[in-house]
What does this fold into?
Amino acid sequence: MSIIKITDETKKESISTEDYLKAIYKLMNVSSGSVKTQDIANKLGVTSAAVSEMVKKLATKELLDYIPYKGVRLLPEGIKKGKLVIRRHRLIELYLHEYLDIPRNMVHEEAEVLEHFASDYLINKMDKKLGFPQFDPHGAPIPDKNGIIPTHKTAIPLSESKKGDVCKIVRVSNFDSELLEHLENEGITIGVLITVSGILEFDGTVQVRIGEKTSSLSTKICQNIWVDPIN
Amino acid sequence: MSIIKITDETKKESISTEDYLKAIYKLMNVSSGSVKTQDIANKLGVTSAAVSEMVKKLATKELLDYIPYKGVRLLPEGIKKGKLVIRRHRLIELYLHEYLDIPRNMVHEEAEVLEHFASDYLINKMDKKLGFPQFDPHGAPIPDKNGIIPTHKTAIPLSESKKGDVCKIVRVSNFDSELLEHLENEGITIGVLITVSGILEFDGTVQVRIGEKTSSLSTKICQNIWVDPIN
DNA sequence: TTAGAAGTTTAAGCATGCTTAAACTTTTTG
DNA sequence: CAAAAAGTTTAAGCATGCTTAAACTTCTAA
It folds into this structure.
C-alpha cells in the first residue's frame, strides 16, 4: 500500500477550469503579456461577466495572477495544466485520425470534448501506440509529459514566402472544418511539397503548384499555413 | 440545406439522465417489474431523495412511468436511450481492450466516463473497426444500432453446473476490478474451456480444471460466471 | 483634460443535481 | 390490526457556472 500525497498539482480541475486554462494559455502565446477578459470571453463563447467571476476563482487557486481591469497571466501551475489539456487534445486528434480514420476536419470537435475525459492512463497508451509523436494531424506540436513542446524551427507562414520558394507544409493553424476540408480538396496537407508559382500584388493571393495541380490561396488562408522552405 | 426535426428522440440527455436510464434499465432486467427508489440510489451512489427528485423529472420527459411510493418503469423512449448508453459503454470497453491493450479489469472505469462523451460518429467508427462485434470483453452483449441485443442462448451460471460438465466461459457479469484480476490470474477468461471436477456439498464451492491447472471458486463468484455446456 | 466610448466588474437570478432533515406512506410484525 | 420499522418524498440549502442589467474603470480623441 502506497501513500499518495494529494497536492494542488494532483487534483483534477473542472471541465470549465480546463477550458479557461487552455484558452488563456493560447492567448498568452499570441499577445504575450496579459490576457484580457474580453479575449477570453470571445474564445470561450461566454460573457465577460462570466470570465470575470471565473478568473477570480482561478486566482485564488493560484493558477493565475489577476489584476482587476488589467487582465490575467498564468502562473506556472496554470501553464502546466493548460499544456496538459493541449497535450490530451492533440494526442486524441492524432489517434482518431490515424487509428479510426476520422478526417482531419472532424477530429477537432471530437477532441474538444474528449480532452476533458480521457484519463492520463489512456492518453499515455495512445501516446505509446502512436510512437510518442511530436505533431498532431494539423502539424500542431504535442507537449510531452513534462510539458516540453517541439517546434518547427525554420517554419514561416506561407503569406511570407517568395515567388519560386519550394517548401514543405508543416502546419495548418486553424481548425475551421470548412477551411480544412477545402485545403484537403486542394491537396494542401501536412507533409506535402509545394512551389510558390506567384503572388498577386493586388491582394497578396498566393499561387502554388502541388505536383500537377495549382491552387490559389488568399492572404488570410496563407497566414494559417506554415511551411518549411527547402531551398 | 436539409431540415432536421428536433424530436425528443434526437435530443441529447444530460450525463446524469443517461446514468439514471442505464441504471434503471439494468435493474428492470433483474427484478422485472417496477424499480424501487432505493435500488436506483444504491446503484448510482446517491441518496434516495436525489433519486426521487430526478425520477420526477424523467417522468415529465416521458422517459419513464413513475408512481410515487411505488416505483418506476421505463417507457419505450427510456429503454431505447438506456440501451444506447450500454451500447456505447460496451463498444468502448471492447475497443480499449482490443486496440489499446487495456486490461479487462480496467476498461470498465474508463468506459464509465467515456460512454457519455463519445459521439455516435465515433462509436460507429469503433463498431466498424471491431467488425460489428456482439459481445464486450466480459462477454456482455452489445446492443446494435437498433437496440437489438444478442444472447448467449444456452448459457447457465457456473453455480448451476454439475460435476463432470465441460463448458466454455461466455460471460463474467461483474466488473469488480479485483475479482476480474483474480479470475484472469486463475485463467478463467472468456472463451476458455473448463471442466467441473467437483462441487463441495458444504458451501457449493466449485472446483474446475482449466487445462493443467485447477481452481476453486466460491458460489458467489460462480453466480457471476456464465458458461455454455458443451456436452 | 475631459467627455464619451469601450471594456470590466458586481449583483441578482437561473438551471442542474446533489445533500440533510423532517414529514409522510407503506410494509412488517407482534 | 395497530405500532414500529422501513422506505419515500418534500423542503431548504449548497456548489458550479452561466446570463442580463447596472455600476464602475480605463482608454481615446477632440
About this structure: The helical segments of chain B are 15-30, 37-44, 48-60, 76-99, 104-114, 120-129, 177-186, 219-222. The longest strand of chain B covers residues 166-172. Residues 36-38, 48-49, 51-53, 56, 68-69 of chain B lie near DNA strand D (CB under 10 Å from a C1'). Confidence is low (pLDDT under 50) at residues 1-8 of chain B.
